[in-house]
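Notes to self after the call with IL:
- keep both proteins in one doc
- input above output, always
- annotate only the second one for now

Protein 1:
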Amino acid sequence: MVNLQDVKNAREEISDIVHETPLLSSALLNAKAGRQIFLKAEHLQKTGSFKIRGAANAVKGAVRNGAQFITAASSGNHGQAVAYIAGTLGIPAVIVVPEDANRAKVGAIEAYGGRVEYCGFTSADRIPRAMQLAEENSGVYIPPYDHPHVIAGQGTVGLEILEQLPDVEVIVVPVGGGGLISGILTAVKAVKPEVRIIGVEPEAGNDTQLSLKSGKITAVSGNFSIADGLRTSQPGELTFPILQEHLDDLVLVTEEEIKSAMQFVIERTKQLIEPSAATAVAAVLAGRAGDQNQKIAIVLSGGNIDLLELRSCLPE
């Protein structure tokens, strides 16, 4: 299992690549939530999301071990991050995306130097193809969350929050496959175990909630939430045990709550975030995460959104 030293090592490994993103605050957000809120601005991170942290740690590790070719299966932030870091290191990368992949995200992958291959419509289609390409080219496949170097890289978000806000009491984190929150749990619970860490999932994709309730990894199908970065069918084999051991709570938000939170953040803080990031804000605004008078850090996980689709992510 990933530990605190792994996260510290990852921080050193990726320090020349990633930004230390700021903590933002908004008096209007504090007033609406009835809580003292700080926004960890990972939407301002390189490639537009926290994903570059884990991708940089994993890809640099693979290259150090001799990899000359990298693949990933992703239609979004992970694919962009892997393409970026591979290009930075001068290593060719192929990102396998679904046939209906968002044009803006595909364009970003290509702009970062990645080659795009289309395959099927689900991760069950994409992942085997990406792994096949890696094997055929003596390369390395980089999974989006279920990898120790990826988890450790994402955990650096937690270390930064503790340094930037030493008296933080609650950290609220969007949950998809669990790479981000398991990394944050690993770092924060080792340094300051009294900090409560709360995960947030869309009601339309509650695989982690169902898994925690059943005590075993439980898959869901038909996750059509607007929070497309959280559309995983189940938590990871490596991430799930970390959540079982350390997670303080996991709450759900509706699609309308996500849309309303996204609109509030864009209008009142002037920060362009994606729906996945808005889930954590939605949970706090709904009163499901953190108590009054507590200092709460919300991880704004990303800001990659196709502007042509922005209207559909806002309330009617």
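Protein 2 (the one to annotate):
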Amino acid sequence: MADFVAAIDQGTTSTRCMIFDHSGREVGKYQLEHQQLMPTAGWVEHDPLEIWQRTQEVVRQALAERGLVAADLAGLGITNQRETTVVWDPVTGEPYGNAIVWQDTRTDRIAAALDRDGRCDVIRHRAGLPPATYFSGGKLQWILENVDEVRDAAERGRALFGTTDSWLLWHLTGGIDGGQHITDVTNASRTMLMDLETLDWDPELLSFFGIPHAMLPTIVPSSDAAAYQRTRADGPFGGEVPIAGDLGDQQAAMVGQVCLREGEAKNTYGTGNFLLLNTGEKLFRSTNGLLSTVCYQFGEAPPVYALEGSIAVTGSAVQWLRDQLQIIRNAAEIETLASQVESAAQLYFVPAFSGLFAPYWRSDARGVIVGLSRFHTREHIARATLEAICYQSRDVVEAMEKDAGVQLDELKVDGGVTANALCMQIQADTLGVEVSKPVVAETTALGAAYAAGLATGFWTSPEDLRDNWLEDRRWAPQISDDERAAGYEGWKKAVQRTLDWVQV
């Protein structure tokens, strides 16, 4: 019997292959970064061919370093950066230009036009999403309207659309030789094109964006061995492996954190922050700026839904301090710098570099640093950056409690920023609840592995997964309610200073 499950985690800045044993412990990993292409202000692109090449490399290296072969793997799960849009030719396998990344804002006029008429209400009700540059539907419309020959190719069946999971699944299962063109319900729910109740592409939503149905992948459950083909024998795994799971990265983190019961929540700290609340089989339609989304669907069971607060810039604000301002030399240095002051001394940094996501959804916003005086130093700016990560998460928690009527009493956290203990303490202080970090911090890849392992019988039930979850560290609030309220009031004033900066 196979002893391991593999996961491919195709993220915004890198791709990795991770291998887990039955206890959920990482036994193998290999990771490579890919280029961030920014040809003009507001545009963010990736090279799909580079991503596919990196995927093959990380798979081969992860297996080789552990001395494993395809037969050692009970299954493979995929997780991916959501919303990033790829269009390619199924005959040649060549993409029609670079992928448009979820952070890209070139579709602001498309989103604004949708928001000005009645179409926005239909999109919000059926897809659970506000018209925004974030989601795939507008990106695909832009490609059809602006990239030579794509519209004609789509009408002739020579153009396929997918997020990066679809792009990789197509290649892994055969590519031009019969590759499977699919996506799962979680990724489909991020396009503005899928009806959350029917779990199928909606003809009226497609008409809003002028998208031919034939371009779209088949929507399948997040965990289901029968829905996916095996990897091709001559591919990077060097043999056939059952593909049995596919989830967008934030939904995968929910599964990896075992937030499988209604009312459980997690926050992933990466390039942005993504806070999700499991709402069970009940679909909540947010009235407070959150996203209604599919959390996961296991086999033929009904879908489980979530409320999500997506925050565009958190960890990438730390990168900005490092790369653009050169206040720090590496990401870890921000904790040392910020810990040299007890507070940001009423200085606030709102990193609305490409507008504000949840719960504001203001593409006209741009970043500000407010409250500056000659007293302030780079240490205060570093601390204000960590506070911005945490205040943005509080914005989402406040909206979540209003929508679902659920009072958060604990927050599970994961992602790279959780290595910063000061930031996690600030998060506990800002929210007024305890913050818990698991031993296995790579919960996105682990969630994809769990989805595949459940479908193939490697794990027999979600309770097996709960037994694997172990806490690494916990932070409790250390400031008073009055201090918490005053700090948050200043943050809300700072957010108002970001608005109405760009004409859309």
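Annotation: The radius of gyration is 22 Å. The first strand starts at residue 4 and ends at 10.
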